[in-house]
Amino acid sequence: MFVVTGATGNVGRALVRMLTEARLPVTAVARHITPADVPPGVRAVAADLAEPAGLGAAFDGAEALFLLVAGEDPHGILDAAKTAGIRKVVLLSSQGAGTRPEVYRHPGRFEAAVRESGLDWTVLRSGGMATNAFAWAESIRTRREAAAPFGDIGLPFVDPDDVAAVAAAALRQGTHLGATYTLTGPAPTTPRERAAAIATALGEPVRFTEQTREEAHELMARFMPLPVVEGTLAILGEPTEDERQASPDIAHVLGRAPGTFAAWAERNAAAFR
Predict the structure, then answer these.
(1) Which distant-in-sequence residues (6+ apart) come within 8 Å of 241 by Cβ?
(2) What does each C-alpha distance from 232 to 108, 132, 169 come to in angstroms?
(3) pLDDT digits 0-9 by tens, 67-88
(4) Which of 109, 156, 180, 236 is the most buried (most CB within 10 A)?
(5) Residue 192 phi/psi, 5° resolution?
(6) What does the CA dihedral 71, 75, 77, 82 come to, rounded to 10 degrees?
């Protein structure tokens, strides 16, 4: 049995689908989940990683766990996993835990707890995800406009389906134990280029508007903690060399190149229509 936390999210939903298509038993876990949210045959359990004492039923009978960075008690989550008999954990962390550990302390704490847990482990450090473009969905649908800061600074955004595919490999195979992988797309793309890729997928023009740093800060601070806002803007506007570079790790694990942002936009064009 494989437990997938965050099972209704961009990576978790794809991972549940991939494991199910491989005819593997899956328990899908999220705070708000019902059987209607998962494929037939998947066990859906509503549970909150912020409350480790309530995770026993979700973890029962499982051998491997896909874990998000969520809640404040990674040791409590991992203790619950060990008590339930789980032997392997694959953690979805952030690239920032490696490039900016002074800012991304929360995922760093989870990484340390996983490595010290006594369980078999793999850490996946994801770069920015292509699904961040869904933040443009309403403005593109209603005004054919996309706004972002740092319009000509490129980062190698990753397709969440590729992250899920690497997670599935790490859960199923024994060759990734003790590995820390950085997951990115195949090449940097700028916000302006990503807006253009969506326009191509739609077959209609999309106007790109460059925000000032201050405008972006004000908008992001409405739903993100201030240290995360500052860290995110630093990555977007002043990326390090490691953050600019595409990582080879997806190709190493999957034996193929990661998907492009343009391909992701084609698959998800309906969200912007």
Answers:
(1) none
(2) 16, 12, 29
(3) 999 999 999 999 999 999 999 9
(4) 156
(5) -60, -40
(6) 170
Residues contacting 210, CB < 8 A, separation 6+: 147, 148, 149, 150, 151, 191, 192
Distance (Å, whole) CA 179 – CA 177 = 5
Summarised one tens digit per residue, pLDDT across range 198-238 is: 999 999 999 999 999 999 999 999 988 888 888 899 999 99
Predicted local distance difference test score (pLDDT) of residue 103: 87
- Backbone CA torsion sign across 267, 173, 6, 243: negative
Q: Per the structure block, which two tokens stand in for 1?
A: 């049995």
Place of tokens 């000032």: 212
From 34, 224, 250, select the one nearest 125 (Cα to Cα): 250
Rounded CA separation 13/223 (Å): 23
- Coil vs helix vs strand at 227: helix
Q: Cα angle at 189 between 187 and 192, to 5 degrees?
A: 165
DSSP alpha helices (H): ranges in 135-183? Answer: 137-143, 160-172
Quickly tell me which residue has 């019902």 as its tokens. 34
pLDDT, tens digit (0-9, with 9 covering 90-100), for 133-160: 999 999 999 999 999 999 999 999 999 9
- Helices (H), ranges, 27-133: 56-59, 74-84, 96-99, 105-115
Query: Which residue is listed with tokens 């694959």?
Result: 90
Look at residue 223 in the predicted model and tell me its pLDDT. Answer: 86
Can you tell me which residue has the tokens 């698959």? 267
- In 3-state terms, what secondary structure has residue 130? helix
C-alpha distances out from residue 63 to 43, 161, 224, Å? 15, 23, 34
